[in-house]
Give the backbone structure.
Amino acid sequence: MAPIISQMKKILLLFLMPIALSAIVTAFKTKSIAPLTIVNQQDSIHYPEETHFRNIRQLTFGGDNAEAYFSYDGKYLVFQRTQPKEGLPCDQIFIGKIPEKPGDPFNYKMVSTGKGRTTCGFFTKDGKHIIYASTHLGGDGCPPVPDRSKYGNKYIWPLYASFDIFMADLDGKIVKQLTHSKGYDAEATLSPDGKKMIYTSVKDGDIDLYIMDLTTGKEKRITNTLGYDGGAWFSPDGKKIIWRASRPSTPEEIREYKTLLAGNLVAPTNMEIWVANADGSHARQVTSFGQANWAPAFLPDSKRIIFASNHEYKRGFPFNLYTINGDGGDLHKISRDKGFDAFPMFSPDGKRIVFCSNRNNGGTHDTNIFIADWVE
Protein backbone atom coordinates (compact mmCIF):
# COMPACT_ATOMS: atom_id res chain seq x y z
CA MET A 1 0.00 0.00 0.00
CA ALA A 2 3.00 2.24 -0.50
CA PRO A 3 1.38 4.63 -3.01
CA ILE A 4 -1.36 5.38 -0.47
CA ILE A 5 1.26 6.78 1.88
CA SER A 6 1.85 9.71 -0.46
CA GLN A 7 -1.38 10.03 -2.43
CA MET A 8 -4.04 9.17 0.15
CA LYS A 9 -2.18 11.38 2.60
CA LYS A 10 -3.32 14.32 0.52
CA ILE A 11 -6.67 12.85 -0.41
CA LEU A 12 -7.72 12.23 3.16
CA LEU A 13 -6.98 15.80 4.14
CA LEU A 14 -4.02 15.82 6.47
CA PHE A 15 -2.83 18.62 8.61
CA LEU A 16 -0.61 21.56 7.66
CA MET A 17 -0.02 24.84 9.57
CA PRO A 18 -1.94 26.89 12.18
CA ILE A 19 -4.82 29.09 11.01
CA ALA A 20 -4.40 32.84 11.09
CA LEU A 21 -7.29 35.00 12.21
CA SER A 22 -7.57 36.73 8.87
CA ALA A 23 -7.76 33.36 7.13
CA ILE A 24 -10.57 32.28 9.43
CA VAL A 25 -12.58 35.35 8.53
CA THR A 26 -12.03 34.64 4.83
CA ALA A 27 -13.07 31.02 5.27
CA PHE A 28 -16.40 31.98 6.84
CA LYS A 29 -17.52 33.72 3.66
CA THR A 30 -19.94 31.80 1.47
CA LYS A 31 -18.24 30.15 -1.48
CA SER A 32 -19.76 29.83 -4.94
CA ILE A 33 -17.87 27.89 -7.58
CA ALA A 34 -19.08 27.71 -11.18
CA PRO A 35 -19.11 24.31 -12.94
CA LEU A 36 -16.31 23.23 -15.26
CA THR A 37 -16.48 21.16 -18.41
CA ILE A 38 -14.95 17.75 -19.01
CA VAL A 39 -11.61 18.17 -20.75
CA ASN A 40 -10.95 14.60 -21.91
CA GLN A 41 -11.80 10.98 -21.22
CA GLN A 42 -8.57 10.46 -19.25
CA ASP A 43 -9.74 12.94 -16.64
CA SER A 44 -13.47 12.45 -16.70
CA ILE A 45 -16.53 13.13 -14.61
CA HIS A 46 -18.27 9.96 -15.85
CA TYR A 47 -16.71 6.80 -17.23
CA PRO A 48 -18.62 4.55 -19.70
CA GLU A 49 -18.46 1.54 -17.36
CA GLU A 50 -20.21 3.47 -14.57
CA THR A 51 -23.68 2.34 -15.57
CA HIS A 52 -25.20 2.96 -12.15
CA PHE A 53 -24.53 6.72 -12.42
CA ARG A 54 -26.68 9.04 -14.50
CA ASN A 55 -26.68 12.83 -14.74
CA ILE A 56 -23.50 13.04 -12.69
CA ARG A 57 -22.53 16.54 -11.54
CA GLN A 58 -19.38 17.91 -9.94
CA LEU A 59 -20.24 20.20 -7.03
CA THR A 60 -16.83 21.42 -5.79
CA PHE A 61 -13.76 22.47 -7.74
CA GLY A 62 -10.43 22.53 -5.96
CA GLY A 63 -9.12 21.68 -2.52
CA ASP A 64 -9.80 18.50 -0.59
CA ASN A 65 -13.52 17.96 -0.08
CA ALA A 66 -14.62 14.79 1.67
CA GLU A 67 -17.34 13.02 3.65
CA ALA A 68 -20.24 14.79 1.97
CA TYR A 69 -23.51 13.60 3.53
CA PHE A 70 -27.16 14.40 2.83
CA SER A 71 -29.52 16.18 5.19
CA TYR A 72 -32.62 14.21 6.17
CA ASP A 73 -34.71 16.05 3.56
CA GLY A 74 -32.11 15.42 0.86
CA LYS A 75 -31.73 19.11 -0.01
CA TYR A 76 -28.40 19.92 1.65
CA LEU A 77 -24.93 18.46 2.07
CA VAL A 78 -22.53 18.75 5.00
CA PHE A 79 -18.86 18.07 4.27
CA GLN A 80 -15.32 18.76 5.40
CA ARG A 81 -12.92 20.86 3.36
CA THR A 82 -9.22 21.69 3.31
CA GLN A 83 -7.91 24.42 1.01
CA PRO A 84 -4.74 26.27 2.03
CA LYS A 85 -5.37 28.89 -0.67
CA GLU A 86 -8.50 29.90 1.28
CA GLY A 87 -6.79 29.86 4.67
CA LEU A 88 -7.97 26.33 5.47
CA PRO A 89 -4.82 24.36 6.28
CA CYS A 90 -6.81 21.53 7.83
CA ASP A 91 -10.42 20.34 7.69
CA GLN A 92 -13.34 22.56 8.58
CA ILE A 93 -17.04 21.74 8.25
CA PHE A 94 -19.21 23.30 5.53
CA ILE A 95 -22.85 23.05 4.49
CA GLY A 96 -24.44 23.85 1.15
CA LYS A 97 -27.74 23.50 -0.65
CA ILE A 98 -27.68 21.09 -3.57
CA PRO A 99 -28.36 22.97 -6.84
CA GLU A 100 -31.82 22.26 -8.19
CA LYS A 101 -30.87 22.84 -11.83
CA PRO A 102 -27.90 21.41 -13.74
CA GLY A 103 -25.31 24.12 -14.25
CA ASP A 104 -26.25 26.09 -11.16
CA PRO A 105 -23.33 26.69 -8.74
CA PHE A 106 -23.06 24.90 -5.42
CA ASN A 107 -23.03 27.57 -2.72
CA TYR A 108 -21.61 26.61 0.66
CA LYS A 109 -20.49 28.18 3.92
CA MET A 110 -18.36 27.17 6.87
CA VAL A 111 -20.22 26.23 10.05
CA SER A 112 -17.39 24.99 12.26
CA THR A 113 -15.33 27.31 14.45
CA GLY A 114 -12.39 27.70 12.07
CA LYS A 115 -10.13 26.50 14.87
CA GLY A 116 -8.36 23.18 15.25
CA ARG A 117 -9.24 20.31 12.95
CA THR A 118 -12.70 18.88 12.34
CA THR A 119 -14.17 15.73 10.86
CA CYS A 120 -17.36 13.80 10.20
CA GLY A 121 -20.21 16.31 9.93
CA PHE A 122 -23.81 15.08 9.97
CA PHE A 123 -27.19 16.83 9.90
CA THR A 124 -29.68 16.34 12.71
CA LYS A 125 -33.22 15.21 11.99
CA ASP A 126 -34.71 18.70 12.43
CA GLY A 127 -32.45 20.08 9.71
CA LYS A 128 -31.50 22.97 11.99
CA HIS A 129 -28.29 21.58 13.46
CA ILE A 130 -25.25 19.53 12.63
CA ILE A 131 -22.94 17.35 14.69
CA TYR A 132 -19.22 17.11 14.05
CA ALA A 133 -15.95 16.31 15.80
CA SER A 134 -13.39 19.01 16.48
CA THR A 135 -10.06 19.51 18.24
CA HIS A 136 -10.61 23.24 18.87
CA LEU A 137 -10.75 22.85 22.66
CA GLY A 138 -7.20 21.53 22.45
CA GLY A 139 -5.87 24.52 20.53
CA ASP A 140 -6.63 26.98 17.75
CA GLY A 141 -4.12 25.56 15.28
CA CYS A 142 -4.04 22.32 13.34
CA PRO A 143 -2.84 19.39 15.47
CA PRO A 144 0.70 18.20 14.64
CA VAL A 145 1.25 15.59 11.94
CA PRO A 146 2.43 12.21 13.30
CA ASP A 147 6.07 11.34 12.65
CA ARG A 148 5.72 8.20 10.55
CA SER A 149 9.47 7.56 10.63
CA LYS A 150 9.05 6.36 14.22
CA TYR A 151 6.77 3.58 12.94
CA GLY A 152 8.62 2.34 9.89
CA ASN A 153 7.05 5.01 7.63
CA LYS A 154 3.75 3.15 7.71
CA TYR A 155 0.61 4.97 6.63
CA ILE A 156 -1.10 5.90 9.89
CA TRP A 157 -4.07 7.90 11.10
CA PRO A 158 -3.81 10.07 14.23
CA LEU A 159 -6.42 9.63 16.95
CA TYR A 160 -6.18 13.11 18.39
CA ALA A 161 -7.10 13.05 22.07
CA SER A 162 -8.58 16.55 21.74
CA PHE A 163 -11.32 15.36 19.38
CA ASP A 164 -14.77 15.72 20.92
CA ILE A 165 -18.19 15.77 19.27
CA PHE A 166 -20.30 18.93 19.22
CA MET A 167 -23.72 20.05 18.04
CA ALA A 168 -23.97 23.42 16.29
CA ASP A 169 -26.69 25.41 14.57
CA LEU A 170 -26.47 26.31 10.89
CA ASP A 171 -24.82 29.62 11.71
CA GLY A 172 -21.94 27.82 13.39
CA LYS A 173 -22.90 28.44 17.02
CA ILE A 174 -22.10 25.43 19.18
CA VAL A 175 -25.18 24.63 21.24
CA LYS A 176 -24.01 21.46 22.96
CA GLN A 177 -20.91 19.36 23.60
CA LEU A 178 -21.91 15.71 23.21
CA THR A 179 -18.74 13.92 24.35
CA HIS A 180 -16.30 14.78 27.12
CA SER A 181 -13.80 11.94 27.37
CA LYS A 182 -10.08 12.66 27.56
CA GLY A 183 -9.39 10.57 24.48
CA TYR A 184 -10.47 10.45 20.85
CA ASP A 185 -14.22 10.84 20.21
CA ALA A 186 -15.18 11.21 16.53
CA GLU A 187 -16.69 9.54 13.43
CA ALA A 188 -20.31 10.15 14.43
CA THR A 189 -23.48 9.53 12.41
CA LEU A 190 -27.14 9.45 13.45
CA SER A 191 -29.94 6.90 13.27
CA PRO A 192 -32.76 7.33 10.73
CA ASP A 193 -35.09 8.66 13.45
CA GLY A 194 -32.38 11.10 14.58
CA LYS A 195 -32.51 9.91 18.18
CA LYS A 196 -29.26 7.95 18.46
CA MET A 197 -25.65 8.71 17.64
CA ILE A 198 -23.09 6.04 16.83
CA TYR A 199 -19.46 7.07 17.12
CA THR A 200 -15.90 5.87 17.77
CA SER A 201 -14.00 6.40 21.02
CA VAL A 202 -10.90 5.17 22.85
CA LYS A 203 -12.36 5.93 26.28
CA ASP A 204 -12.19 2.31 27.44
CA GLY A 205 -8.71 1.51 26.16
CA ASP A 206 -9.46 0.23 22.66
CA ILE A 207 -10.92 1.82 19.52
CA ASP A 208 -14.59 0.91 19.85
CA LEU A 209 -18.11 1.89 18.80
CA TYR A 210 -20.61 3.50 21.16
CA ILE A 211 -24.27 4.40 20.75
CA MET A 212 -25.59 7.46 22.58
CA ASP A 213 -29.18 8.55 23.14
CA LEU A 214 -29.09 12.22 22.13
CA THR A 215 -31.89 13.18 24.53
CA THR A 216 -30.60 11.54 27.70
CA GLY A 217 -26.89 11.26 26.93
CA LYS A 218 -26.94 7.63 28.03
CA GLU A 219 -24.66 5.42 25.98
CA LYS A 220 -23.55 1.86 25.45
CA ARG A 221 -20.33 0.37 24.14
CA ILE A 222 -21.28 -2.09 21.39
CA THR A 223 -17.91 -3.53 20.22
CA ASN A 224 -15.50 -5.41 22.46
CA THR A 225 -13.04 -7.18 20.15
CA LEU A 226 -9.44 -5.98 19.95
CA GLY A 227 -8.94 -3.78 16.89
CA TYR A 228 -10.13 -0.56 15.32
CA ASP A 229 -13.90 -0.14 14.94
CA GLY A 230 -15.06 3.02 13.21
CA GLY A 231 -16.88 4.81 10.42
CA ALA A 232 -20.22 3.31 11.48
CA TRP A 233 -23.65 3.91 9.94
CA PHE A 234 -27.20 2.81 10.65
CA SER A 235 -29.18 1.12 7.90
CA PRO A 236 -32.05 3.15 6.39
CA ASP A 237 -34.58 1.00 8.28
CA GLY A 238 -32.67 1.51 11.53
CA LYS A 239 -32.35 -2.20 12.23
CA LYS A 240 -28.66 -2.70 11.47
CA ILE A 241 -25.30 -0.99 11.69
CA ILE A 242 -22.29 -1.23 9.39
CA TRP A 243 -18.68 -0.22 9.99
CA ARG A 244 -15.02 -0.81 9.12
CA ALA A 245 -12.81 -2.83 11.44
CA SER A 246 -9.31 -4.18 11.84
CA ARG A 247 -8.79 -7.45 13.66
CA PRO A 248 -5.14 -8.01 14.54
CA SER A 249 -4.66 -11.71 15.27
CA THR A 250 -1.00 -12.74 15.21
CA PRO A 251 1.33 -11.75 18.05
CA GLU A 252 3.15 -9.38 15.70
CA GLU A 253 -0.08 -7.72 14.52
CA ILE A 254 -1.36 -7.34 18.07
CA ARG A 255 1.94 -5.88 19.25
CA GLU A 256 1.99 -3.35 16.39
CA TYR A 257 -1.65 -2.39 16.96
CA LYS A 258 -1.13 -1.80 20.67
CA THR A 259 2.08 0.15 20.06
CA LEU A 260 0.32 2.49 17.65
CA LEU A 261 -2.69 2.82 19.93
CA ALA A 262 -0.42 3.82 22.81
CA GLY A 263 0.72 6.69 20.60
CA ASN A 264 -2.87 7.61 19.65
CA LEU A 265 -2.42 6.17 16.17
CA VAL A 266 -3.93 3.47 13.99
CA ALA A 267 -2.85 1.93 10.68
CA PRO A 268 -5.91 1.75 8.36
CA THR A 269 -4.24 -0.46 5.75
CA ASN A 270 -5.96 -3.74 6.63
CA MET A 271 -9.68 -3.28 7.31
CA GLU A 272 -12.82 -5.22 6.46
CA ILE A 273 -16.54 -4.45 6.47
CA TRP A 274 -18.67 -5.65 9.38
CA VAL A 275 -22.41 -5.54 10.07
CA ALA A 276 -24.50 -6.17 13.19
CA ASN A 277 -27.94 -5.59 14.59
CA ALA A 278 -28.56 -2.00 15.67
CA ASP A 279 -27.69 -2.83 19.29
CA GLY A 280 -24.36 -4.39 18.28
CA SER A 281 -25.53 -7.99 18.61
CA HIS A 282 -24.88 -10.69 16.00
CA ALA A 283 -21.78 -8.94 14.63
CA ARG A 284 -20.42 -10.58 11.51
CA GLN A 285 -17.71 -9.91 8.95
CA VAL A 286 -18.89 -9.27 5.39
CA THR A 287 -15.68 -8.84 3.39
CA SER A 288 -12.42 -10.79 3.50
CA PHE A 289 -10.55 -9.14 0.66
CA GLY A 290 -7.47 -7.88 2.48
CA GLN A 291 -6.02 -4.38 2.21
CA ALA A 292 -8.36 -1.43 2.93
CA ASN A 293 -12.12 -1.92 2.72
CA TRP A 294 -13.86 1.04 4.30
CA ALA A 295 -16.41 3.90 4.01
CA PRO A 296 -19.33 1.45 4.00
CA ALA A 297 -23.01 2.35 3.83
CA PHE A 298 -26.21 0.47 3.17
CA LEU A 299 -28.13 0.77 -0.07
CA PRO A 300 -31.73 2.01 0.27
CA ASP A 301 -33.02 -1.57 0.68
CA SER A 302 -31.03 -1.93 3.96
CA LYS A 303 -29.69 -5.24 2.65
CA ARG A 304 -26.97 -4.51 0.13
CA ILE A 305 -23.82 -2.55 0.92
CA ILE A 306 -21.68 -0.01 -0.90
CA PHE A 307 -18.08 0.59 0.15
CA ALA A 308 -14.68 1.83 -1.01
CA SER A 309 -11.79 -0.57 -1.51
CA ASN A 310 -8.35 -0.97 -3.03
CA HIS A 311 -8.38 -4.78 -2.87
CA GLU A 312 -7.98 -5.20 -6.64
CA TYR A 313 -4.69 -3.36 -6.70
CA LYS A 314 -1.54 -4.81 -5.16
CA ARG A 315 0.10 -1.39 -5.05
CA GLY A 316 -2.73 -0.16 -2.81
CA PHE A 317 -4.19 2.33 -5.26
CA PRO A 318 -6.64 3.32 -6.73
CA PHE A 319 -9.75 3.15 -4.57
CA ASN A 320 -13.09 2.39 -6.22
CA LEU A 321 -16.67 1.87 -5.06
CA TYR A 322 -18.22 -1.62 -4.91
CA THR A 323 -21.55 -3.11 -3.90
CA ILE A 324 -21.96 -6.43 -2.14
CA ASN A 325 -24.74 -8.41 -0.49
CA GLY A 326 -24.95 -8.56 3.27
CA ASP A 327 -23.78 -12.19 3.16
CA GLY A 328 -20.61 -11.23 1.26
CA GLY A 329 -21.79 -12.40 -2.16
CA ASP A 330 -22.54 -10.75 -5.48
CA LEU A 331 -19.69 -8.24 -5.58
CA HIS A 332 -20.05 -5.52 -8.22
CA LYS A 333 -17.58 -2.78 -9.17
CA ILE A 334 -19.41 0.54 -9.39
CA SER A 335 -16.86 3.31 -10.04
CA ARG A 336 -13.85 3.41 -12.36
CA ASP A 337 -11.64 6.38 -11.63
CA LYS A 338 -7.90 5.66 -11.59
CA GLY A 339 -7.40 7.70 -8.42
CA PHE A 340 -9.81 7.76 -5.52
CA ASP A 341 -13.57 7.20 -5.19
CA ALA A 342 -14.97 6.96 -1.65
CA PHE A 343 -17.47 8.24 0.95
CA PRO A 344 -20.66 7.08 -0.82
CA MET A 345 -24.06 7.97 0.62
CA PHE A 346 -27.55 7.57 -0.83
CA SER A 347 -30.16 10.29 -0.56
CA PRO A 348 -33.04 9.58 1.84
CA ASP A 349 -35.34 8.75 -1.08
CA GLY A 350 -32.71 6.41 -2.56
CA LYS A 351 -32.73 8.14 -5.94
CA ARG A 352 -29.32 9.83 -5.77
CA ILE A 353 -25.83 9.06 -4.60
CA VAL A 354 -23.11 11.45 -3.44
CA PHE A 355 -19.44 10.51 -3.30
CA CYS A 356 -15.99 12.11 -3.33
CA SER A 357 -13.40 11.53 -6.03
CA ASN A 358 -10.11 12.58 -7.60
CA ARG A 359 -11.71 12.53 -11.05
CA ASN A 360 -11.63 15.58 -13.28
CA ASN A 361 -9.07 17.37 -11.12
CA GLY A 362 -6.68 18.34 -13.89
CA GLY A 363 -3.91 16.06 -12.66
CA THR A 364 -3.79 17.62 -9.20
CA HIS A 365 -4.41 15.89 -5.87
CA ASP A 366 -7.75 17.68 -5.42
CA THR A 367 -10.67 15.64 -4.12
CA ASN A 368 -14.15 16.91 -5.05
CA ILE A 369 -17.80 16.13 -4.39
CA PHE A 370 -19.95 14.49 -7.06
CA ILE A 371 -23.65 13.73 -7.11
CA ALA A 372 -25.53 11.47 -9.52
CA ASP A 373 -28.86 9.79 -10.10
CA TRP A 374 -28.65 6.12 -9.08
CA VAL A 375 -29.60 3.55 -11.70
CA GLU A 376 -30.42 0.02 -10.55
In short: Residues 118 and 134 are 4 Å apart (CA to CA). The chain has three helices and 27 strands. The domain at 2-374 is CATH 2.120.10.30 (Neuraminidase). The radius of gyration is 19 Å.
